[in-house]
Amino acid sequence: QVSELVQFLLVKDQKKIPVKKADMLKNIIREYRDAYWEILNKAGKTLQEVFGLQLVEIDTKRHICILINNLPRAEGQYLCREKEKEKMGLLLVILSFIFMKGNSVKDSALWEFLHLLRVYPGKQHSVFGDVRKLVTEEFVRQKYLETTPIPLTDPPEFKYQWGPRAEKETSKKDVLNFVAKIQGKDPTFWASQYSEAEATP
């Protein structure tokens, strides 16, 4: 059961899909549901020791888990599969933008910002494919980003914030250092972001 669960979690992690306890019980653990926590803990230990991945529960009510990298990170880089690197680069830029703008941005502001980077929603990008889909569906489904509708807007508008996976896989400090590096400034240049980054682990 343990090795089956490890494989199941790794397959889900390829697409960065959060895994529900219900799915683990139904697909893998089945009649061993009494030993659920024991199997999960052993699988978690294997993932950590063999793959450097940490099994983390991001929703304690509905018991939803994700795998995060806990190998030492290169500065401002995610440890990920080659072809994912570019996507993660774009994600890091988006997370930086959200953080620098006070942890929440309207979708229109985000698209304007991406426009400056020559990344256009609705246009096929040679590296990222359908950018609108990548940002609004994939990154949201993978829990890197969260969207909240803004009340009383017509047409409906949304705001973007960091999702729980982003909170676990990177830190505001990493992101601020990344921005500082790009801009060639010291992180202390942004006083309020700097103090917030220092205050959050």
Describe the structure.
- Residues 71-79 have low confidence and may be disordered.
- This protein starts with a helix and ends with a helix.
- The chain is an alpha+beta fold and 201 residues long.
- β7 (145-150) and β8 (157-162) form a beta hairpin.
- The chain has a 3-stranded antiparallel sheet. The chain has a 3-stranded antiparallel sheet with strand order 4-8-7. The protein has a two-stranded antiparallel sheet with strand order 5-6.
- It has 2 domains: 1-69, MAGE homology domain, winged helix WH1 motif (Arc Repressor Mutant, subunit A, Orthogonal Bundle), CATH 1.10.10; 82-170, Orthogonal Bundle (Arc Repressor Mutant, subunit A).
- α4 (84-100) packs across α8 (172-183) and α8 runs antiparallel to α9.
- It has 9 helices and 8 strands.
- Pfam families: MAGE (PF01454).
- Residues 1-197 form the MAGE domain.
- It comes from Cinclus mexicanus (American dipper).
- InterPro entries: MAGE (IPR037445), MAGE_WH1 (IPR041898), MAGE_WH2 (IPR041899), MHD_dom (IPR002190).
